[in-house]
Design a protein that fits this description.
By secondary structure, this protein is α+β, with helices and mostly antiparallel strands. Helix content is 64%, strand content 9%. The protein is built from 30 helices and 26 strands. A hairpin with a 4-residue loop joins strand 25 and strand 26. Helix 7 (386-402) crosses helix 17. The longest helix is centred in the N-terminal third of the chain and has 188 residues, at 186-373.
């Protein structure tokens, strides 16, 4: 029941509140931070297509927790994106919710990247009142206000109307499950149903088993009685077996005592020989230590040589760097000197130029002063008396009055002409200036190009020299590394070979027969295809101590020749016959017997190892090696070999001293010249090969080039290479600098060429020239018209003053003054221009540049002297290192001679020690034979004990041990089959096992049977005891009861009791599962029915409101039905809507508008079940005509009003004097049961004015083309609505 209680995370709570405003930042089409709202009780969002209305819907859905997959994009794609700018990396949406207590709650959802990288992933963070919370806390807070994110009871997306209208009956059922919350119980429902079925099935199964066990119990009871009778007869047989085994053990103990005495004598003799041999081994070990000390000293000297070499290699680059740095500074000093001379020349030229400019400036000022001191008029100019001047001015005013319009037009035209002439003059001056600058830049470009070509040629030459030096240095370094590596490698091989030669003891010459066989095998391998060689040539023993054992294992197969197949073997036989060579054995790989080695042989424990694992060979020869070695085991001691051979599995075993134990009970041991020679074959062959390899390697070492000469040459080449690298680096830097200057200059020249060409072909210049000419002509015509008017007015005046016309006076006296002013202006402009040139030249402070360059030159000279001193010090250190290297080489030669002398002494001692080792081997062979005899007796005893264990014979023994008649209490007697435990627990020796044995009790044996000492007497007594035992066994063989029936009977009774308990537990579990299933079934049905009944009762009323009109005041009919009452969620829900005047028909047969109205009725009915405080709808009126749009709009508006005020009508709704009939057409009725539904805030996106004209506020969404983003404008319509009392 606790699982059912945890299905719902929270309970739905109805709340009255509203969305106050929305804040977005960089969300979809909304750029930057924007505040949208405030939202009223009924808010319509309007705007053209593409303006971002649906993005506002997505913003509301996003902040309320709707999954990103339903918002047309990933988190990154939800951020504002503009192709002209980089996408912002962070954005958010904040919804301000006002509760019914006027408290503001801010819900925010932020999009942020995981890191600062461009490939970072994005995630969303939830906040409540700017505090980060988890999604669970966020969704619970929303649910506390009646906002269910999972059910989505607060919004209708664009297109949801069509989806709802097209749902099938099964999909409607799923929709009701989601709305009611019963889908949360779907999984527990299925799990409980499965658990109930499983529990009932288990009860049936356990009941069937209980009946089967009862029948089995009856059968076992009968078998139990028969077994008790048979067990009494077995006890008599057991006593006879005990007597028979005790008699055999008694006589084996007598044989073991005599064998121990012989073994003791041989042990004492072997101990004396071992002491003598140990003295020679000690002297040989001292010689080995002396030789090891010499070898270590040689290695130390070689290490010193390598250290000197590395030390010299580290210093050589430093010397090269110093030398190159000195050369670079020398070149830099020369360049600085040249630059210093250039600065001096530039300073001299600047002084000369400044002197000339100052002289020109003085001359210009003097000319300006002369103009200012000149008179206001010139001699011969006409002068008027005051009366004439007054009359002139009066006539001038009258003329100006009559010609004012012409003069204004002329003044405007003249102003245009001056502007055009000024522009024309500037364009001409600009063209001339560009041409001059272009010529100067071209000259500079040619100079820079020449310098760059020269520098690039120098870089190429230096690069060629550097490439040659690099190749030479690389080859020299490679030769040096190769020589050093070869020398180190060869010296290491020599040391390894000398060590292996010292360790080798098998130095002997091959016999004549072995030489003949080796020569024959070589000829066969050369002449006959498919011949690989002898076995002894194809395999190698992994450890020298196993040479003798492996020689015994392989025996005659050592000289056998391995061939590819039988055909190759027959060809070899024919070749031997034809050439009259010695007979040889052949092993064809394709047909030789080779059974896979059992894996259990590798897991026997102790030192036991399969012979196959002690040799190495090529994979292609594996079959031949398996054939030769078979399943033979190799062990370290004879005792362990005896245990494995005479144990349970009877293995073929060889000890390291060459003793062979066969599974048939026979064994072979002792010394053999032939076997020893075979064992030493690997050592002898290896020894000769090692000697040849050592001599060859020494010749190779002598042929290598001298290391120090190669090192010196390589160091010299590296130094020269470093100098060239520094030089080319400087040259490349100069070339790069010149190239950068050249690129800048080329770009400047290209720009100037383009500008000059544009100026030469500038259509504006030609247009200006033509315009100026035309306007001048117009001015001339205007002047003629003005002059005609003036001449008529001034005709009498002109005669009185004695001039042809008044213009003579104006052009002489007044024009002279204007000319003088123009000359003054021209002089002022020239003075300003020269003054600016002087200031420009004075800005170039060549004195400061000269001082800086001299300081740099001095610093470089000081640094050059310091570098030369360091270079001299490094040269002296290099000579000292060379002397030390020569001394170490001499010491290496002395150590080599000492090592050869020590090796000769060791060889002599090894020959002397070999004689003693041979004698020790002979004694060991005799000792092994004696030990083998003793072990045979002990093996028979162990086999007898194992047989007694297998036959389950409990042998009697005394509580104490008496030395002779004992049994291993930890191994043989209790568990003689556990071979591995015996080998490890007793260290493989019979004496150590005796300490842990208990003595057998032989008191039940008769004295006559004990006295049978001869072989014949023992055979007689043994045959008698065996016949008595066989007769008793035959009697028992006739009956075959079930001896385990007693235990089985009790086990069946216990099993029956356990089965009854299990059946009772299963029945209880089935009852509990059935109760759990019924509880979940009832809860799921209750949830579904609660939602279904509510929606079913509300949908007809809502549909009537959406379809009623003046013609059809009752509206249409809509109802829901479900074909399953007990478990409605498993059935199908049918939604039927009948518009007014239409008969019943399926939803698919309704028109598009009728489907939309029906779908809206269903959505509103669903919303009324668990209503949220607000409802957001996106273009739900898309498929509706004007009439249906008005009905839906009125219905939504009525749902946003409190129940007591839904009869009120606004000015915008009834100000036109609409009648009750018109209101009925819109679905408006004053008193309806639906008006008592709780109100909610509605936010609707619509493109139809019929819809949004009924809203309390408008949110207009438009496109800001300048910023390429969406903008919003909020318009409050509530002030146009009349109070409830007025309506």
């Amino acid at each position: 029941m606790s699982e059912i209680a945890e299905i719902d995370e929270f309970e739905y709570q109805r709340a009255n509140g509203r969305i106050d405003r929305l804040e977005v930042e960089h969300f979809k089409s909304y750029k930057g931070h924007q505040q949208i709202g405030p939202f009223k009780t009924f808010t319509a969002i309007v705007g053209p297509n593409g303006s971002g209305k649906s993005n506002l819907m997505d913003a509301i859905s996003f902040v309320l927790g709707v999954k990103t997959a339903q918002l047309r994009g990933s988190l990154k794609e939800l951020l504002y994106s503009n192709s002209d700018h980089e996408r912002p990396r962070r954005g958010y949406v904040k919804l301000v919710y006002v509760t019914e207590d006027d408290e503001e709650v801010q819900f925010s959802r932020v999009i942020q990247p995981s890191s600062a990288e461009a490939t970072a992933t994005y995630s969303s963070v939830y906040k409540i009142n700017d505090k980060v919370v988890t999604w669970d806390a966020y969704s619970k807070k929303l649910a506390g206000f009646g906002i269910l994110v999972k059910v989505r009871n607060f919004l209708v997306f664009q297109g949801d109307i069509e989806k709802v209208a097209s749902r099938s009956r099964e999909q409607l059922t799923q929709l009701f499950e989601q709305i009611s919350g019963s889908d949360a119980l779907a999984k527990p429902y299925e799990e409980a149903a499965a658990a109930k079925a499983k529990a009932e099935e288990q009860v049936q199964l356990l009941f069937a088993k209980k009946k089967s066990i009862a029948a089995e119990r009856k059968q076992k009871k009968e078998q139990k009685e028969e077994a008790e009778k048979h067990m009494a007869a077995q006890e008599a047989l057991r006593q006879r077996r005990i007597y028979y085994f005790l008699w055999q053990l008694y006589h084996l103990q007598q044989d073991e005592s005599s064998a121990k005495q012989q073994q003791q004598v041989l042990s004492e003799e072997l101990e004396d020989l071992n002491q003598q041999s140990a003295e020679y081994d000690h002297n040989l070990e001292q010689k080995r230590q002396q030789q090891s000390a010499i070898i270590r000293e040689r290695m130390r000297v070689e290490k010193e040589q390598r250290k000197l070499q590395k030390k010299q290699e580290k210093k050589d680059p430093a010397r090269a760097r110093l030398h190159e740095e000195a050369n670079r500074l020398t070149r830099r000093i020369a360049v600085s000197q040249n630059e210093l001379d250039n600065i001096k020349r530039s300073a001299k030229a600047q002084a000369k130029k400044l002197s000339k400019l100052r002289k020109d400036l003085a001359q210009l000022k003097e000319a300006r002063d002369q103009l200012e001191s000149s008179g206001a008029g010139e001699d011969g100019q006409l002068q008027l008396d005051p009366a004439q001047l007054i009359e002139y001015r009066r006539l001038k005013a009258a003329a100006d009055s009559k010609t004012s319009k012409l003069l204004q037009e002329r003044a405007a035209l003249e102003a245009q002409v001056k502007v055009d002439e000024g522009k024309l003059s500037r364009l001409q001056e600009t063209s001339i200036a560009k041409t001059s600058r272009l010529q100067a830049q071209r000259a500079k470009l040619e100079e820079l190009q020449q310098r760059l070509d020269n520098t690039q040629q120098a870089v190429d030459d230096t690069g060629t020299q550097l490439a040659d030096k690099q190749r030479a240095a690389k080859n020299a370094a490679a030769d040096h590394r190769k020589t050093s590596s070869q020398r180190d490698y060869l010296m290491g091989k020599v040391r390894d070979i000398e060590g292996r030669l010292l360790a080798s003891k098998g130095m002997r010459q091959a016999t004549d027969r072995e030489k003949r066989l080796a020569a024959a095998a070589a000829r066969l391998r050369k002449e006959v295809p498919g011949v690989y060689g002898r076995v002894s040539e194809l395999v190698r023993v992994t450890n020298r101590k196993y040479n003798l054992a492996m020689a015994v294992v392989m025996q005659q197969h050592l000289d056998s020749v391995v061939v590819a197949d039988r055909a190759a073997g027959f060809a070899c036989v024919d070749f031997l016959k034809a050439n009259k060579l010695e007979r040889m054995d052949f092993i064809p790989l394709d047909s030789c017997e080779a059974k896979p080695l059992p894996e259990r042989l590798r897991q026997l424990g102790g030192t036991a190892t399969p012979a196959l694992d002690l040799i190495t060979f090529e994979p292609q020869y594996e079959r031949a090696c398996v054939h030769v070695c078979g399943t033979t085991l190799v062990v370290d001691t004879i005792e362990e070999a005896r245990d494995l051979c005479y144990g349970e599995d009877h293995h073929k075993v060889v000890s390291v001293d060459g003793t062979l134990f066969k599974p048939n009970g026979t064994f072979t041991g002792g010394k053999s010249a032939g076997i020893d020679a075979r064992a030493n074959r690997w050592d002898a062959e290896e020894y000769e090969k090692l000697k040849q390899q050592r001599e060859k390697i020494k010749k190779d070492i002598d042929a290598l080039p001298d290391v120090f000469k190669a090192q010196t040459a390589a160091g010299q080449l590296q130094q020269e290479q470093h100098q060239l690298e520094q030089r080319i680096k400087i040259q490349k830097a100069d070339a790069q600098q010149l190239q950068e200057q050249l690129d800048v200059l080329k770009a400047s020249v290209a720009t100037l060429e383009s500008a000059a060409a544009s100026a030469a072909e500038d259509p504006e210049l030609a247009e200006l020239q033509s315009a100026v000419s035309d306007k001048r002509k117009q001015l001339a015509k205007m002047d003629e018209r003005v002059n005609d008017i003036k001449d008529r007015l001034f005709a009498d005046f002109s005669k009185r003053v004695g001039v042809k016309n008044i213009r003579v006076y104006e052009e002489t006296t007044l024009a002279a003054a204007a000319k003088l002013e123009a000359q003054k202006q021209q002089h002022e402009e020239q003075i300003v221009k020269v003054t600016e040139q002087i200031a420009y030249e004075e800005e170039h402070d060549f004195a400061k540049k000269l001082e800086d360059k001299q300081a740099q030159l001095y610093a470089d000279t000081e640094k050059l002297e310091h570098l030369k001193e360091q270079e001299a010090q490094l040269d002296a250190a290099a000579e000292q290192v060379q002397d030390q290297a020569q001394q170490l080489a001499q010491k290496m030669e002395e150590l080599r001679q000492q090592a050869e002398s020590a090796a000769a002494g060791m060889k002599e001692l090894q020959a002397q020690a070999a004689g003693y080792h041979k004698e020790v081997g002979r004694i060991k062979g005799q000792m092994a034979a004696a030990t083998t005899a003793l072990e045979a007796v002990r093996s028979s005893r162990r086999n007898l004990l194992e047989q007694a264990t297998l036959d389950q014979v409990d042998l009697p023994y005394h509580g104490g041990a008496d030395g002779g008649d004992e049994v291993n209490s930890g191994s043989d007697a209790d568990n003689p089959m556990d071979v591995g435990e015996e080998a490890e627990g007793t260290q493989g020796t019979e004496d150590s096992r005796a300490k842990h044995r208990k003595a057998f009790d032989y008191s039940r044996l008769s004295n006559k049977d004990k006295a049978a000492n001869t072989k014949k007497e023992r055979e007689t007594v043994g045959r008698r005891l065996k016949e008595e035992l066989d007769a008793t066994t035959a009697e028992l063989a006739t009956s075959a009861p079930n001896l385990k029936a007693v235990e089985q009977y009790e086990a069946v009774r216990e099993k029956e009791r356990q089965q009854i308990l299990a059946l009772d537990a299963a029945r209880k579990e089935a009852t509990a599962a059935s109760k759990t299933f019924l509880h979940i079934q009832q809860k799921r049905t209750q949830r579904f029915n609660n939602a279904f009944e509510h929606i079913k009762s509300a949908i007809d009323h809502i549909y009537k409101q959406l379809t009623r009109s003046a013609i059809h005041p009752l509206g249409g009919q809509a109802y829901l039905s479900c074909d399953t009452e007990d478990e409605p969620y498993l059935g199908k829900v049918t939604y039927t809507a009948m518009p007014p005047t239409k008969r019943f028909r399926d939803m698919d047969q309704l028109s598009g508008g009728e489907k939309s109205v029906a779908a809206l009725a269903l959505l509103f009915a669903i919303h009324s079940y668990r209503p949220s405080p607000f409802f957001v709808l996106d273009e739900v009126d898309a498929a509706l005509d004007a009439t249906n749009v008005a009905r839906v709009a009125h219905y939504i508006r009525s749902c946003t009003r409190p129940p007591g005020s839904r009869g009120a009508r606004s000015v915008r709704g009834d100000a036109d004097g609409s009648s009750k009939r018109q209101r009925l057409q819109l679905g408006q009725e004053e008193d309806t049961p639906g008006d008592e539904l709780e109100s909610f805030q509605s936010i609707v996106i619509s493109l139809k004015d019929i819809f949004y004209e009924k809203a309390d506020a408008l949110v207009g969404v438009c496109r800001d083309l300048d910023q390429n983003c969406s903008k919003t404008i909020t318009f409050d319509l509530s002030r146009f609505e009349l109070p409830t009392e007025a309506s």
